[in-house]
Amino acid sequence: MSSFVTLSSGQRMPMVGLGTWKSSPGQVKQAVLAALECGYRHIDCAAAYGNEQEVGEALALWIGPGKALRREEVFVTSKLWNTKHEPQDVEEACRTTLAHLGLSYVDLYLMHWPMAFQRGQELMPRRADGSIRYSDTHYRDTWRAMESLVDKGLVKAVGLSNFNARQTDDVISIARHKPVVNQVECHPYLSQTDLLSHCRSVGVSVTAYSPLGSGDRPWASPDQPCLLEDSRLAAISQRHQKTPAQIILRWHIQRGVACIPKSVTPSRIQQNLEVFDFSLSQEDMKLIESINCNERLIVPTVERDGKKVWRDAGHPHFPFHDAY
């Protein structure tokens, strides 16, 4: 199994990258330095994470004339946030990301969600009652503006994140520059088999975010099962003398799915890359596949009438009403 996936653009994207969501300022620079030190060549970022300047500081220590790496040796992804979907805002948002990262281009630029929020400087524009102010800007119009970033050399390729199969096809139907990736939540509790096979059939690669189930997500409730403590994984991990995290990452890789585990702990960052020296059997793969319960862990929820509901379910472009 190669340690790269070849995208439809011809680019080679490393199968394992460092995720930086929830890595707080003060931690993320050290995490990126630790990752580059132990051999990571794929860093996943987003404007909405609020830490791209610090990621940029780490990249600057490693990349450039006289440094350890050439720019083309590191694959950097970033994402356009929901408040920047107006076509006239897209290029400025991308240039801000590039300035923060200290780069002249990113390898991949994703639309973070298909849903547009009201434009402006706030990450989460809210009404007085706390609900999000939405915009009806269509993701197709945003996509056309993103394509011009490729034309201008600001990004090497463009892609999607959190899009369902129908929305992915919708973008492909109007695209001059085809989306090369759809980055979605994917782990053994949400195996995404149907979406994965659909994306594959239209030439779109899949990257798994929260590939280990995001045990540190801020809204996790104590009664939700923890993927890394699942007894079915424990048996496989004992057999292979690998950690449950390594077993899960290997499962992703053998399915052809790139993954971006987040960690700020140097030993874990290193362990997450040590997944190319063993293979899972077909029985192992089937067992892990059987853990699937279609459980989304990363959809923002709010309390309504004493019940937790999906926060953005009323948005016209909310992606998760479809089966996949």
TrEMBL record:
<dbReference type="InterPro" id="IPR023210">
    <property type="entry name" value="NADP_OxRdtase_dom"/>
</dbReference>
<feature type="active site" description="Proton donor">
    <location>
        <position position="49"/>
    </location>
</feature>
<dbReference type="Pfam" id="PF00248">
    <property type="entry name" value="Aldo_ket_red"/>
</dbReference>
<comment type="similarity">
    <text>Belongs to the aldo/keto reductase family.</text>
</comment>
<dbReference type="InterPro" id="IPR018170">
    <property type="entry name" value="Aldo/ket_reductase_CS"/>
</dbReference>
<keyword id="KW-0963">Cytoplasm</keyword>
<dbReference type="GO" id="GO:0016324">
    <property type="term" value="C:apical plasma membrane"/>
</dbReference>
<comment type="function">
    <text>Catalyzes the NADPH-dependent reduction of a wide variety of carbonyl-containing compounds to their corresponding alcohols. Displays enzymatic activity towards endogenous metabolites such as aromatic and aliphatic aldehydes, ketones, monosaccharides and bile acids. Acts as an aldehyde-detoxification enzyme. Also acts as an inhibitor of protein S-nitrosylation by mediating degradation of S-nitroso-coenzyme A (S-nitroso-CoA), a cofactor required to S-nitrosylate proteins. Also acts as a S-nitroso-glutathione reductase by catalyzing the NADPH-dependent reduction of S-nitrosoglutathione.</text>
</comment>
<keyword id="KW-1003">Cell membrane</keyword>
<dbReference type="GO" id="GO:0008106">
    <property type="term" value="F:alcohol dehydrogenase (NADP+) activity"/>
</dbReference>
<dbReference type="InterPro" id="IPR036812">
    <property type="entry name" value="NAD(P)_OxRdtase_dom_sf"/>
</dbReference>
<keyword id="KW-0560">Oxidoreductase</keyword>
<dbReference type="GO" id="GO:0005829">
    <property type="term" value="C:cytosol"/>
</dbReference>
<dbReference type="InterPro" id="IPR044481">
    <property type="entry name" value="AKR1A"/>
</dbReference>
<protein>
    <recommendedName>
        <fullName>alcohol dehydrogenase (NADP(+))</fullName>
        <ecNumber>1.1.1.2</ecNumber>
    </recommendedName>
</protein>
<dbReference type="GO" id="GO:0046185">
    <property type="term" value="P:aldehyde catabolic process"/>
</dbReference>
<keyword id="KW-0472">Membrane</keyword>
<dbReference type="InterPro" id="IPR020471">
    <property type="entry name" value="AKR"/>
</dbReference>
<feature type="domain" description="NADP-dependent oxidoreductase">
    <location>
        <begin position="17"/>
        <end position="292"/>
    </location>
</feature>
<feature type="binding site">
    <location>
        <position position="112"/>
    </location>
    <ligand>
        <name>substrate</name>
    </ligand>
</feature>
<dbReference type="GO" id="GO:0042593">
    <property type="term" value="P:glucose homeostasis"/>
</dbReference>
<feature type="site" description="Lowers pKa of active site Tyr">
    <location>
        <position position="79"/>
    </location>
</feature>
<keyword id="KW-0521">NADP</keyword>
